[in-house]
Amino acid sequence: xxxxxxxxxxxxxxxxxxxxxxxxxxxxxxxxxxxxxxxxxxxxxxxxxxxxxxxxxxxxxxxxxxxxxxxxxxxxxxxxxxxxxxxxxxxxxxxxxxxxxxxxxxxxxxxxxxxxxxxxxxxxxxxxxxxxxxxxxxxxxxxxxxxxxxxxxxxxxxxxxxxxxxxxxxxxxxxxxxxxxxxxxxxxxxxxxxxxxxxxxxxxxxxxxxxxxxxxxxxxxxxxxxxxxxxxxxxxxxxxxxxxxxxxxxxxxxxxxxxxxxxxxxxxxxxxxxxxxxxxxxxxxxxxxxxxxxxxxxxxxxxxxxxxxxxxxxxxxxxxxxxxxxxxxxxxxxxxxxxxxxxxxxxxxxxxxxxxxxxxxxxxxxxxxxxxxxxxxxxxxxxxxxxxxxxxxxxxxxxxxxxxxxxxxxxxxxxxxxxxxxxxxxxxxxxxxxxxxxxxxxxxxxxxxxxxxxxxxxxxxxxxxxxxxxxxxxxxxxxxxxxxxxxxxxxxxxxxxxxxxxxxxxxxxxxxxxxxxxxxxxxxxxxxxxxxxxxxxxxxxxxxxxxxxxxxxxxxxxxxxxxxxxxxxxxxxxxxxxxxxxxxxxxxxxxxxxxxxxxxxxxxxxxxxxxxxxxxxxxxxxxxxxxxxxxxxxxxxxxxxxxxxxxxxxxxxxxxxxxxxxxxxxxxxxxxxxxxxxxxxxxxxxxxxxxxxxxxxxxxxxxxxxxxxxxxxxxxxxxxxxxxxxxxxxxxxxxxxxxxxxxxxxxxxxxxxxxxxxxxxxxxxxxxxxxxxxxxxxxxxxxxxxxxxxxxxxxxxxxxxxxxxxxxxxxxxxxxxxxxxxxxxxxxxxxxxxxxxxxxxxxxxxxxxxxxxxxxxxxxxxxxxxxxxxxxxxxxxxxxxxxxxxxxxxxxxxxxxxxxxxxxxxxxxxxxxxxxxxxxxxxxxxxxxxxxxxxxxxxxxxxxxxxxxxxxxxxxxxxxxxxxxxxxxxxxxxxxxxxxxxxxxxxxxxxxxxxxxxxxxxxxxxxxxxxxxxxxxxxxxxxxxxxxxxxxxxxxxxxxxxxxxxxxxxxxxxxxxxxxxxxxxxxxxxxxxxxxxxxxxxxxxxxxxxxxxxxxxxxxxxxxxxxxxxxxxxxxxxxxxxxxxxxxxxxxxxxxxxxxxxxxxxxxxxxxxxxxxxxxxxxxxxxxxxxxxxxxxxxxxxxxxxxxxxxxxxxxxxxxxxxxxxxxxxxxxxxxxxxxxxxxxxxxxxxxxxxxx
Length: 1237
Prior knowledge:
Layout: H1 6-13, E1 19-23, H2 29-42, E2 55-59, H3 62-82, H4 86-98, E3 104-106, H5 107-118, E4 129-130, H6 134-154, H7 158-166, H8 175-188, H9 193-202, H10 214-242, H11 252-268, H12 274-283, H13 307-333, H14 338-372, E5 375-376, H15 378-390, H16 398-406, E6 409-412, H17 420-429, E7 435-440, H18 454-463, E8 472-476, E9 478-479, H19 484-497, E10 514-515, E11 527-533, H20 556-578, E12 582-584, E13 597-599, E14 605-609, H21 615-624, E15 629-631, H22 641-654, H23 659-667, H24 675-682, H25 690-699, H26 705-727, H27 730-741, H28 743-748, H29 753-772, H30 778-790, E16 808-812, H31 813-816, E17 821-826, H32 836-839, E18 843-845, E19 849-851, E20 853-855, E21 862-864, H33 866-891, E22 894-904, H34 907-915, H35 927-932, H36 936-944, E23 952-955, E24 960-966, H37 984-999, H38 1006-1009, E25 1014-1016, H39 1062-1075, H40 1084-1096, H41 1102-1106, H42 1110-1118, H43 1120-1127, E26 1132-1143, H44 1144-1147, E27 1160-1172, E28 1177-1183, H45 1192-1214, E29 1218-1225, E30 1230-1233
Parallel strand pairs: 1-7, 1-8, 2-3, 2-6, 4-5, 6-7, 9-10, 11-22, 11-24, 14-16, 14-17, 15-16, 17-22, 25-27, 28-29
Antiparallel strand pairs: 12-13, 18-19, 20-21, 23-24, 26-27, 27-28, 29-30
Helix pairs in contact: 1-2, 2-3, 3-4, 5-15, 6-14, 7-14, 8-14, 9-14, 10-11, 10-13, 15-17, 19-36, 20-21, 22-23, 27-29, 34-36, 42-43
C-alpha cells in the first residue's frame, strides 16, 4: 500500500461534505481520485460498500476517463484478489464487470446518456447524430447566418444595415458575422443564455446620464482608480530616483506635487463629477501649498558631468513615461464630454439591441438547421441535458429526481476548467443526500478560449477556507514528479508573478510546490535557459544550407528565429544522447535509487511550444538530422503527402480535366511516373488541359509503348472509380482506392508510416461522418474539405503515438497537460502573448459583456466606447493570467531537467524590462512590470535574472544556468554532408568498389520472397497470447512462412459419411446470432422463428437447423454481456471485418528465418461483435466449443491470441482504446473477460 501524506488521507477518506482538492502539479490527483473511489467501493466500518453505478465521475477528456477506468480496473482486481471476506470479494468482482459501463466520462458524454434515456421529457427525436467536430458545426453556422442576413437584406431593414456597417471594414462585410459567432460562443456556455444576452444591453443603459448608472460606479470608477495607481507607481520611481543623489533632489518638488495631485484625485473620485476629473487629467496643473504653479527645473547639460547626466536623463525619461500614461488615460476615457459620451452610448445601445435581436434569430436558425439534419453539437448536449433535468412530466422533474436519487457522490476532475453551463448541470444533480468531490488546480486553468470559468474554483477555494464553512478544502502541494531544482525554480517564478488579480491565486506557502521525490546526486538536474541574440543591425538573410522549409508566411526575422531555435534544440538533443546523459527512472526494478539510473532515450524528451506553427519544420529538420520525432497534435493535416495524393485522386474522379490534381496523381506512387514522362505527355498537346494531352499521347504513333500501357491502365482504373462513385458512397470509394492502389500499405512503409496510415483512416472516417450528416456527392465533399481549409479548420492528425515508441515527442503546452517527461525542452520562450482578443475592435468578457467600437459610416472614423476600454483592460489581465498559467503547466511537465530556448533581436530592451521591476514585502513584482511582459522569456527573466548584468550566469540555489548566445543569421552549425572533390584515381577505386558491391549483392528482403503476404487471424491466433504463454510450434509454419492450422478438412468426395460437423454447427449458430433482432431481449420463440426463417430462405438446411441450441442463445442474451449488447444495440456491429499490417519479424519471431524490419504481412479476420461506446470499444467472440470447468483455461489460451489481435486491429481502425475483450462459451453459458485475466 502506498504511503499517503496527511493531506492525501484527508482527500481520500473525508465524507459527508463537499470537498475541494487543490492539487498542485505532480501531486498525484488521479491516484488520489482512484483510491477514493476504491475505498468507497470496498466500504469500511462506518460506511457500507458503494456501487460504482452510484458514482458520477466527470473528467475533462475522453482519454482521462479511459485512463481512470483502466487504473481503477487494476486496483479493483488487486483488491478483489486480496479480499478475505467472501461478500466483499463478490461485491468487488461485480464492480469489475460494471466498470466499462460506469459513469466515468466527460460531462458531454454524461449529458449524451441523459438525453438518450430521457429524450421524451423534451419531446426530442432520439435518432440524432453528434456532430463529429467543429468543422461541420462551422459550416452549418455559416449557412444559418447567411439565411438570417439575407432575410434582413430582403426586408431592407435599416437598423440591420446600420449594424452591419458598424462592424464592416473596407475589405468585406464579415465583421458582423464574426461578432455574432463570438457572441454565440459566450452566450451558449453561460448558465443562463437568455439572461446573459439581456445583460449585454443593460451595460449601455442609463436614465439621465451614464454617470448615474451602475456601470459608472461598479466598473468605470474602479478602472480609473487603477490607472491612477499606475501613474503613482511611475511617480514613485521618480521619487526613488531623486533620493539617490543630492543633485537629483532638484526634481523632488515636481515628484511630490504629482504624488499629492494623484492622491487627491484617487480619494475624491466618488464625489467628483466626470467633467472635473476630465479637466484635471487634461490640464494636470501642479500647484504648491500656496496655490502657485510648481515650476519645472531647467538644467543645462553643460553644468552636468558623469552620473549627473545619467540621472537627469532618467528623470526626464520618468516624466515622459508619466505624461504618456496620463495622456493614454485621458484618451481612453475622457476624450469626449459627458454629453458626448451619453450621445455615443445611446447610439451604442441601439446597436447592441439590434445585435441581440440578430443573435437570437441566428441561434434559432442554427438550431432549426441542426434539427432538420437530426444532429446535435457539444453545446446542445449540455443545453438539452439542462432542459431534461429541469423539465417536468406530470408535475415531477423525473430526470432530476432519478439522478439525484441515483448518485451518492459527484466527482469532478479538472474542476478549474469547468464552464458556467457545466456548473449548472452539476448544481442540478446535487441535493442534500449527495456531495461533490472537486479536484483541480487553478494554476493549471488554461482553457479560457473554451470559456472555462476559473472563478468558480477560486470562489470555492476562498469560501471553503472560512471557519464557518461546513465544507472542506484540501491542499495537495507535494510534487512527486519533479526534482527539487525544478520545484525551487518554479516557486521562485510564481511567487513573484502570481496574485489574486493576475493569475487568480496568491502563490503563498500553501500553493508552493514541496519536493516529494529525491533524485540521486549523481544525475544532472540543472535547468538551462539559453537566449539566442540577433544584433539589431545584423542581416536576417540566411544560407540555403540551413534553410528550414515552411509553407506558412512569416517575416525573414521570424524564419531566422524559427531556424535558430529548432537547430539549437536538435543540437542539444544530440549532445545529451551522445554524452550518455543519465536519467533517474523511479520505475526501474531496483531497491537502491542509485541503481535506478539508465542512459537517456529519445522518448525521455519532450519539446513543448505555445502553438503548433513550428511542428512541420521540426519534423522536417529532425528527420534530416536523424532524430526520431513524433508530433502528437500536428496541424496541417491536409498538407501531408498522403492526404494531398488522396485529395488529388478524388478531384480527378470528380473531374479529370484538372491539371494539378491529375499530374499529382500521375507523379504519385499510385501511378509512379517521373518528370521526364510527364513532360513527354505534355508535348503531345501543349495548349489544352493535361487530360487532353494524355488522350493525345495515347493515339500518337510516336509515343512510348510502355508509357502508353501505363496510361491505359490508369485511365481504365480512373473510369472504374468514376463509375463506382456514381453508385456508391464516398467512404466506399475511398476504401476501394486504398485497396486497389495499395496506397494504405505504401504509406505504412514510409517514415512515420503508422501516422500516415492513421491519417488515411481518418479521411475515410471523415467521409463517413460527412454522409451521415445528409451531405451527398463527391463534388460536394471536395468542396466541403476546401471550405474546411478556408475556415482554417484543418483537422488535427489522429494520434498514433505509443508509449514504447523511442521518439522525441513534440506537442503544445495544452497537449502536454497531465503528462510528464524526464527532460522538457521549451522551444520558443520568445513567442509573444496572444493579444488579438484584447486589441480587437469588439471585445468580450463572460462577466462584463461586450465592448464595441462605434464607426461613423460617412467618415469611417472609429470611436471606442468606454465599455470597450473597461472590458479590454479586463481581458488583458485575464489573458496575461492565462499565459502565466500556461507557463506553470509547461515548466511542471519536467521531471529531471528543464531546457528553455529563447530569442531576442533587442537584448538591451529585454534586459531593461527584466531590470525595471519593484518587489513588495511578499517578493511580488509590481503589477505594471508584470503587465508589460511580452512573453514567457520576460516572465522568467524578471523573476530569476533581474539585474544580473551578465551574458552568462549561474544561480546555485535554483540550479539555473543562463546563457545569452550572440548569433548571426545563417551561422548555426548544420548537419549537411559535404562531398569532397575526388581525383580520377579515387573515382576508379570507387568504381571498383561499386562493381564488387553489385556482384556481391544479397537481397536484404530475401525471406519476404518466400513468405506469404497474407495471414488470417485464425491462422495465427496463438501469436498474441500472454507473453508467458506465447509459443508457436515450428512445424505449424510451412515452407512459405505461413502459419497453418495444422490440419485440413478432407475433400467431400473422400468423406464416407455426410455427418454434420461441429464446425458447420458453429457457423450456423454464428449466422443466427448475426441475424438476431437486438432491439429487445429475445425469447425462445424469437430464436426458433428466426432459425425457421433462415431455413425458408435457404440459408440453413433443416438438418443443420436441428443442431442449433436455441436455448443457449436465449441464455446468452439474458446474461450480463448480452444485456450490454441489447442496451447498446445501436452501437453494435456484427461480423466486423478488420485488417492490420504487421511486421514479419513480430509474426515469425520463433522461426529461424531472418526478416527485415520493414517486411510486412497483412493479417485479416472477422470478429463476431463490436460495441463502440463513447469511452472505448468492447469486442466479443462467440464460441461453440464444448467448454467445461476443466478445459476452460485451455480454451482461453487457445482463443486469447485471436481476440488480442482483433483488439489491436479494431483499436487502430476506430482510433479508440479497447475496454472490454470477451469470449462467450455458448454451451457453458459463460462469459470470460480477457482484460480481467
